[in-house]
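Dear colleagues,

As part of the handover before I leave the project, I'm documenting each prediction I ran so the next person doesn't have to rerun anything. This entry is a single chain, and its sequence is reproduced below.
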Amino acid sequence: MAWSAADVPAAERALAAADKPLVLGQSHLRGFDTGEIHWRTTGVWDGTDSANAAGPTKYLGDDFSHLQSYGPSAAPTYLVINAGAAGLPDFDCIAMLKHNIGSANGVNAQLTSIQIANDAAFTGPETILSGWTQPGDERMVFLDLQDAAGTVARRFSGVQYMRFRFDPSPAGIVSLGEVIIGQRRQLRHNPREPWDANNLVTDVSRFESSAGIIKDYSTRLGRRKISAAINPNETANINDFVALFEDDTAFGTQPFLWVDSPASAPTEATWMVFDPPELSGPQVGPAERQFEFSAIEQGPHFRKLGE
């Protein structure tokens, strides 16, 4: 099956350009094992797996950014995916969490390109991202993937083979915590006010000695918390909320990427989990529902701390 691509709908692109929140709950690498994702030094699927045994590639789709996969100490280094004959489900976004890409990290590596192909040898590969320069240790969030035929963000279908090329300088080991590939849920509304996009919490354990000396021990500093109410009145957006909860996150039990400002600050995305895992959407008008939900940032690495 050959891959294909189409423009992300104009209405969704316009909403993203207006910085309406974007949610990425799908993670197509969930459940992938080491047999379907390999580190390579040659850039093709067939060959010898070059992964570090301490960091297997199954960690890239396990929903936990602190468990990292490590490539070989080589330049260039490739991460190659084989999704099988059916190909990956439709996707138009890619994100990488807890990585060491960029000059601010231990390995001065850059992501040179992301390519897709119909065969294991990557004959005539199609580049969907190139020339990326990572400015620091921010999260890598790509919402504008394009092939040669596209001039705007594209949505890809039936992709069997994908590869990421990294160029460490000097040669070093690239590490990645989570690779998220999926199709966006583009919201049409901002949360209802009052809305706090900077709601942060820190867990504290307090110890008091018999002499009355108090010492606080802090854990999980700067963890984001979302408490939101959104009132969509379009059937498609209502269905998006339901699908996000039921399908994308397995009824609120798996994380999702929340992007407050997809146009102006996509790298400030946060990896969230419904807390509690419930979604309420009572009807409040003839065609309007009010969805209320709470979410907490998935640990142990929190965006506010540059992690």
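The chain has a mean pLDDT of 88. The CA atoms of residues 44 and 121 lie 5 Å apart.

All the best with the project,
I.
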